[in-house]
Specification:
The protein is of the alpha/beta class. The protein is about 35% helix and about 20% strand. It has 12 helices and 8 strands. An 8-stranded mixed β-sheet has the order 1-2-4-3-5-6-7-8, with helices on both faces. The protein is globular and about 55 Å long. The termini are far apart. About 45% of the residues are buried.
Length: about 325
């Protein structure tokens, strides 16, 4: 299939990546790729620099019978429980549910905290295949429950929590929103889904268009779903909805969704369909499909005009949903 072309301004990023190819992602390569993941990106303090933001790492309880979770909390400097409560963004990092570390997205969150004056909580979760479904999503949900229960301690408003993430983090965010609805859990103000990974079947046109090209290829996506769900359910329409939210039969009663995706990436069609299904049951969703955007373009090309437009749209939605 002929792929949608990449935006000319950001296409050179892909050329540079192609000029210095990395080993193909495989089960065997996963441990090496994860080694030192936490040190690949600067510490929260280094990212913050002289910005008026405080960072704190905490260990919080995980799901019942599971290990504790690590979180990083970013707060406007000097804010505490004695001041008016602030909205809070609960972030789940990307990496296909098989690689990644929360430090990868500190820059994105620092920008949001500085721009909007909110609190951000960045959670770590267990990775597949060593910890297949439901480990990762249950970790993420446990962190959300902890946040809601400890909101007053953090100076956060439990009525203004947005769950957010990119790629796998977007998929987990959609799944956490489903879990919160179905379990009578925290009432979310919104779900910010950035190029979310939500369809395990890999049957859409866009999933075929980006075989072997781009920052997240069809081949890597197939590997990730097999690691998460195992061979029997990896690409099956019988997969659990809390693993692959596209499998959910009921998308009613969900918090307002912001869904963003590039037109030139594998997740385009599944994300557009998810927004359409929310609208079909009378739900609230805002959909942005950025022309020529490849997967994660805002992280790879932060100074591009495409990224500036995408960030402006995200900030606008957050201000509206959170009443800022």
């Amino acid at each position: 299939m002929i792929p949608v072309p990449f935006d000319p301004e950001i296409a050179p990023v892909l050329d540079a990546l192609a000029a210095d190819p990395q080993p193909a992602l495989s089960r065997e390569a996963l441990p090496a790729m994860r080694d030192g993941a936490a040190s690949l990106f600067p510490s929260a303090e280094a990212v913050i620099g002289d910005r008026p933001i405080d960072a704190e790492d905490r260990v919080i309880p995980g799901p019942a019978g599971a290990p504790d979770l690590e979180v990083t909390i970013l707060t406007p400097r000097g804010h505490d429980a004695s001041r008016p409560a602030l909205p809070v963004l609960y972030n789940i990092h990307g990496g296909g549910m098989i690689v990644g570390h929360r430090s990868w997205e500190t820059g994105r969150l620092v920008q949001l905290v500085e721009e909007l004056g909110v609190i951000a909580v960045n959670v770590e979760y267990r990775l597949a295949p060593e910890n297949p479904y439901p480990a990762g999503v249950e970790d993420c949900y446990a962190g959300l429950v902890w946040l809601a229960e400890h909101a007053a301690e953090l100076g956060a408003d439990p009525a203004r929590i947005v769950v957010m993430g990119g790629s796998a983090g977007g998929g987990f965010s959609a799944a956490v929103a489903l879990l919160a609805r179905d379990r009578g859990g925290p009432a979310l103000a919104g779900q910010l889904l950035l190029c979310p990974m939500i369809d395990n079947t890999n049957t859409t046109v866009s999933s075929h268009q980006y075989a072997g090209i781009g920052t997240w290829t069809r081949e890597t996506n197939l590997l990730a779903w097999e690691c998460v769900l195992g061979e029997e359910l990896a690409f099956s329409d019988r997969a659990p909805a809390y693993a692959a939210p596209t499998r959910a039969t009921d998308l009613s009663g969900l918090p307002h969704a912001y869904i963003e995706v590039g037109a030139a990436e594998p997740f385009r069609d599944e994300d557009v369909e998810y927004a359409s299904r929310i609208w079909a049951v009378g739900g609230d969703a805002e959909l942005h499909v950025w022309s020529g955007g490849f997967h994660g373009f805002d992280m790879y090309a932060p100074d591009s005009e495409l990224t500036r437009a995408a960030l402006a749209a995200r900030f606008s939605w957050l201000r509206r949903v959170l009443g800022l």
